Amino acid sequence: MIGQTARQASVNYITEEAQGKGIVTKSVKAILDYVFRELGLNRVEIRCGVHNKKSRAIPERLGFVQEGIIRDGEWLYDHFHDLVVYSMLAKDWLANSEK
Fold first, then answer.
1. How far is CA 33 from the centre of its chain?
2. Would you state the pLDDT for residue 11?
3. Can you point out the beta strands (E) in 1-99?
4. Out of 3.40.630.30, 2.60.15.10, 3.30.559.10, 3.30.530.20, which CATH number does the structure's domain 2-97 have?
5. Hey, where are the domains in the chain?
6. How far apart are CA 49 and CA 70, in angstroms?
7. In whole angstroms, how far apart are CA 7 and each of 21, 45, 46, 66, 91?
């Protein structure tokens, strides 16, 4: 979802078929390049389940900053679970991607 007035977006991904192949990481990287370079957005956020190591590995691999935990942030299956919030700012992405 892209918020033009706030100049920020969130990225969500759910896939089991692509796990371990780098497809989601490459896709998120392409999205970041597009929203920062073409759309001029300032911030992208990813939220992952605290215990979902595979989902958390993607923003961590791409250099996102972990901002905190949203307690009971999402209803999944039959219970609430906590979410980790990660963010990337345009200035950080552009500085690191040009190295």
1. 13
2. 83
3. 2-3, 8-10, 43-49, 65-76, 79-89
4. 3.40.630.30
5. 2-97
6. 10
7. 31, 12, 15, 20, 13
Distance (Å, whole) CA 84 – CA 41: 22
First-residue to last-residue Cα distance in the chain: 28
Segment 23-38, tens digit of pLDDT: 889 999 999 999 999 9
Residue type, 76: L
Strand order in the sheet with 43-49: 2-3, 8-10, 43-49, 79-89, 65-76
